[in-house]
Amino acid sequence: MAYQTILLDIADNVATVTLNRPDKLNAFSVEMHEELRAAIKEIKAAKARAMVLTGAGRAFCAGADLGARDLATEEKLDLGALLKKYYNPLIRALHRLPMPVIAAVNGVAAGAGANIALGCDLVFAARSASFIQAFVRIGLVPDAGGTYMLPRLIGLQRAMGLAITGDKIDAETAAQWGMIWKCIDDDALMDEVMEFARHIATQPTRSIGLIKRALYASLGNDLDSQLDLERNLQRVAGYGTDYREGVQAFLEKRPAKFTGA
Predict the structure, then answer these.
(1) Are residues 86 and 21 in the same domain?
(2) Which of 55, 61, 83, 249 could pair covalently with 256 via S-S, beta carbons 3.0-4.6 A apart?
């Protein structure tokens, strides 16, 4: 498929998706949502074993393209319908991908752009990058999973402060607070992220997909439910060839050759 608003590259079992509207700070349009949905299907069909999401130019993503709707001619805008059709399915798709999804935040991540980054499994950010819950600045509520993820990542007080002030947080502070995995010098960001992604794509990625399911489910489960889920997922993992390869490699004192199966 020929994409107009994103770039997709698949190499070494790593799928790299670049939001590619740099003149709009990679703000989301309907076309970008539709292309991302198609790209995720293509990534799954290609059996990639890791995904990287980043932005072109000086921003990761400025959120929704506010210039795409005409406020002067529409008395009421059903933004809930927009979330239902586009943003919520995207967050669910990222969580449900059976592979690690890594955000490489190369610049500002604002509004839904920030929360889509936080919806990835691991977030690396350039030192000059920033995160802004900009919704309150235009009279809205954090969406794209922001009200779910922020309190769980950084606690209720910090989440509340960011949400009701719309203050910007820099990447170093985000890393210190546990909002993101790592802050990296700007000129080293993509090299380090791609090195990490290529490495993780050689690991037991089927197991990593199951780990994702377990950790995300734990946020809503009680202990008994989580123990039952661990039992079920461990059964699935134990039937996999990566488990047998991992044990055999350990016994033979050699590096394991995982296939993601």
Answers:
(1) yes
(2) 249
Question: What are 119-145's pLDDT values in tens digits?
Answer: 999 999 999 999 999 999 999 999 999
pLDDT, tens digit (0-9, with 9 covering 90-100), for 41-68: 999 999 999 999 999 999 999 999 987 6
Quote the crossing angle between the two packed helices 156-165 and 146-154, to the nearest 10°.
130
Question: Residue 10 burial by CB count (10 A; 0-12/13-18/19+): exposed, middle or buried?
Answer: middle
The rounded Cα 200 to chain-centroid distance in angstroms is 15
Domain count, the chain: 2
Q: Let me know whether 117 and 189 are in one domain.
A: yes
HSE, CB side, 13 Å, CA atoms: give it for residue 76.
3
Residue 39 shares a structural domain with residue 130 = yes
Q: Nearest Cα to 4, choosing from 42, 41, 30?
A: 30
Read off the pTM: 0.93
